[in-house]
Amino acid sequence: MTSEAGNFEQFLKDFIRAFNESEIDYVLIGGVAVNYYGRPRSTLDADIIIENDTDKIRILEKKLLDNNFLVSENEILDSIGESTHSSIFWNKDILLRLDIKTPTRLLEEEALINKQKIEVFGLEVFIQIPEEIIIAKLIYGSDQDHDDAYGMILRLKDQLDYKLLDRLAIREEVQDKLEVLLEESKKF
Predict the structure, then answer these.
(1) In the CATH scheme, what is the code of domain 5-128?
(2) Which residue among 104, 138, 145, 162 has its CA within the 20 to 30 Å range from the CA of 156?
């Protein structure tokens, strides 16, 4: 099977419906969130942080199964117990997957608290705020992460909360990386 734009749209709709039907507290982070904020890039997964609530996670697993995802009973709970993420594949195109985890650091806990509600394809979804995404990308530090953070700074230059960015960068010890990107962005 090949992953086409129409497939990815249906993948997003299916996962959003599953999460919303489960009533679990969640936030979309990572590449899909970066795309939303105007930094186009390809991705085959949706990264999601969820609350650590056993009953809601069990409901989520059922809702994912009902919405075309390949998930076994306790799969997400088992990955949480092992302090890792769970990769849940979409049964219409196994190249597309959800990477689901619970918060393991303060920035991820804050993502659940500070999330914003947006509409995608007529469905409400919760997404991480851009300042937190930029800082997370600087923490992880791959070339792709650097490009994502820089692209978001360029595209959202007039909309970012620079005091929040600075405060988070200091706390997460990435202020030097942020300063470099901010200086680079002044050229445009």
Answers:
(1) 3.30.460
(2) 104
Q: How distant, in Å, are the alpha carbons of 32, 123, 127, 145, 166 from that of 182?
A: 23, 34, 23, 15, 11
Pairing verdict, β 116-120 and 69-70: unpaired
- Predicted local distance difference test score (pLDDT) of residue 4: 62
Please report the pLDDT score of residue 172 as a whole number.
97
Domain range summary for the chain, segments of one domain joined by +: 5-128, 134-185
The residue with greater pLDDT, 84 or 166, is 166
Residues 132 and 28 sit within 8 Å (Cβ to Cβ):
no
> What single-letter amino acid sits at 54?
T
> Are the beta carbons of 112 and 144 closer than 8 angstroms?
no
Q: Helix or strand or coil: residue 26?
A: strand
Which is it for strands 45-50 and 93-101: parallel, antiparallel or unpaired? parallel
